[in-house]
Amino acid sequence: MTESTHWLPEPNEHNRPFFEGACLGELRIQSCIGCRGWMYPAKKRCQHCGSKALTWQAVSGSGKLYSHARLQRVYHPRHEGRLPVILALIDLEEGVRVSSNLVNCQPSDAKVGMAVHVVFEELPHGVFIPVFQPA
Amino acid sequence: MKHPMNSAVAITGLGITEMGRVYRDAEDLATEAVFLALEDAGLEKSDLDGLLINAGISDGVGVPLHMSLGLKELNLLTYMQGYGSSAGQMVQYAAMAIANGLARTVCCVFSDAPLQENKRSGAVSYTKPGQPDAMASLDTLYGFAGALPKYALAAQRHMDLFGTTQDHLGAVAIAQRRWAGMNPRASKREPLDMAAYSASPWVVEPFHVLDCCLVSNGSVAVIVTSAERARDLKQPPVYLRGFAQAHNHDTGQAGHDSLIYTAAVQSAPRALAMADVTIRDINQCQIYDCYTYTVIATLEDYGFCEKGEGGPFVADGRLGPGGALPTNTGGGELSSFYMWGMTPISEAVIQGRGQGGERQAPNELIMVSGNGGLLAYHATLVLSPQAA
Question: Which contiguous run of DSSP H or E holds residue A62?
Answer without folding.
Answer: strand A62-71
